[in-house]
Amino acid sequence: MNMNKPANLTVGRWAAIALGSFALITALMIILTPLLVEAFYPLPEDTGASFYAWQTEQMGGLVRWSYWTGYVLHQVVVWWLFFKGRKIEPEPGRVSRWHIAMLGANLGFVLLHLLQTHLWYDGLARDVPIWTSQGSVIVMLVLVLYIMIPKRGLFWGRRFEPPQAMLSLVKRWHGLFISWALVFTFWFHPMDGNWGLVSGFVYMFLLFIQMSLFNTTLHTNRWWIVLLEVFVAVHGTLITVYKDNPIWPMFMFGFLWMFVLTQVHTLRIPGWLRWGLLVLFLGAIAWVYGSVRGFNHIYEVTFIPVALYGGVIGLLGLGWIWDRVISR
Fold this sequence. Notes:
Layout: E1 6-10, H1 11-40, H2 61-85, E2 94-96, H3 97-120, H4 130-147, H5 149-152, H6 164-188, H7 195-211, H8 222-242, H9 248-261, H10 271-293, H11 303-327
Antiparallel strand pairs: 1-2
């Protein structure tokens, strides 16, 4: 089969097939959850912020072999497809065979991980710290923020040109890092169908679709990009509420801060609507921290924006140094 030959499939139809396939897998996860509860619950007691709740007390060589083998194979296949297919320019409005192969690979490994979860449950979380998964997602969001600066700026739509050498580097290789972050985070978690984890897997599946859309018009669609960026607020809030953790407003308002002050400015919407969203956002913060969380904790809403903006500012600094060195 000539992989470089365009497939007779439009981007819209391909996206519908991808969304439908992952929706069926999500439903299957939920339906099969009682089997996991019966086989592996109760899980170890949560011991704090650095403890990963979804793991068992078993630890055999076969268990470790199952999730590391699945992760390594998934990673190698995705990277191979990335390097082979990233220079292919599909026909306008259509996908190439490389896109179909990438989607097929991700679907296949998702089903493999679902099987592995029902046989042994545990994932990479047994062997690596929880911050590695969280940190990889933060870096992914930072890279997207940097790439989007020419289109929306970094704050309230004030656009500017970031250092071009760094921008070129990030645009060229962001897919390599993000594909690692997604595959690593996917195998970090067991495919448990409780509603807290399901929100994360729905987000993961949307990102797998984006990863499989490289070099297409939908990959750079403004509304689609903003959806992917803001969905982390949904997952971050739900997973924290599921764990009965009172800091859920930190995640909800921290990520919504990024949406209201930066990401929404990607979209071509009226100015009055942007200001209206800002007023609603500030009103919601005042109500939640005034009646639920307490104003003494309101400082926590800055944690996520500081991490994300700080990462972008760090890239800007490195980029300006790099550009100056090159110019000399």
